[in-house]
Write a structure and sequence with these properties.
The chain has one helix and 19 strands. With about 260 residues, it is mostly beta strands. It has two domains: about 120 residues, no CATH class; about 120 residues, no CATH class. Strands 11-12-13-14-15-17-18-19 form an eight-stranded antiparallel barrel. A seven-stranded antiparallel β-sheet has the order 1-9-10-2-3-4-5, covered by helices on one side. It has a three-stranded antiparallel β-sheet with strand order 6-7-8, with no helix packed on it. A hairpin with a 3-residue loop joins strand 2 and strand 3.
Length: about 260
Amino acid sequence: MMQPRRRTILSSLVTLTALGVSVWQAPPARAADIVCRGVMFGDTDFAAHYGEVGFGRIELTFRSNGHTVEIPLMYVGLDAQERSIFRGNNPEQTSDVAEVVAPRNVQVGTTIQASYNGNVFPGSCASNLPTQPPTGVTPPSQGTWQGNGTGSGAVFSLNQGVNATLNYNRDNFSASLSVPPGTGAQVMYQGTITDLTGTGSNPNSFQLEGRVEAFASSANNLRVDDAPGICQIEVFDARIVSMQCSTSLPNSSTIFRGRAQF
C-alpha cells in the first residue's frame, strides 16, 4: 500500500513539456527506444516512455522504498500550442491522473519539465537502447576530462561560450561548467555514478550517468548539499562532447554542447 504522501503526489497532474533545446547530436534512436527521465520532489524518479504512437506510459519510482507505479497513458488531443496530450489514471489509485504534453516528434537530447501542482522538475530524453563497449575495453576507473563549447541554462545565457570539466574516482563524480577563464559564471554538480559505459575501442570514449547530490552556483555563491538530480555526460576521444544536468532546485538545469574536434 502506498504511503499517504505518495498518494498526495500522485493525485497531482503530471505535465511534461518538451523544450526542444538543440544539443550535440547522438546517434539516432528509434522512437520506441526513447525514455525521458527526471526527479520529482527530490525522492521520486520519473520515466516517461516515448513510442511509435507517442507517450504510452509514465513510471514513478519512490527512492524510500523502491516501489514503482506504472501509469498507462492514452492520446487525448492537442493543446493550444499544437502539442500532443497523453493522459491516464494511476491503477493503484484510480482518482489520480497523470498527463504528458510534448511535441509530436520527441528526439534524443530533448529537455523536458515535469510539474506537480505548479512545482517544476526538469528532465531529459535519451536513448533507452543498451550499449556495450567492445570486449576488453572499459572506461578508466578515475580521471579528469575537459571540453569547450557552448552552454545554456542556470547562470548562462543561451549558447554562451563555456568550459566543461568532469572528475570521477570510483563511485563519485564532479561536473562543472564555467565561463573562461573561470572567474565568471559557473556551476558545479556532485554526486554518485549510476552507470559508466564505454562507447568505442578508445577507453577515453564513454557515457556517464550520475545521481546529483549537491549543487553549487556562482549566483549568490549558492551551495546546496541536498539537491537531488541527474547528470548525463558523454566523452569522446578524451573530450567532453555533451553534458545535461538538472536538480530539484530552480535555475539549476544546464545543457553543454562541445565543439567538434579535428
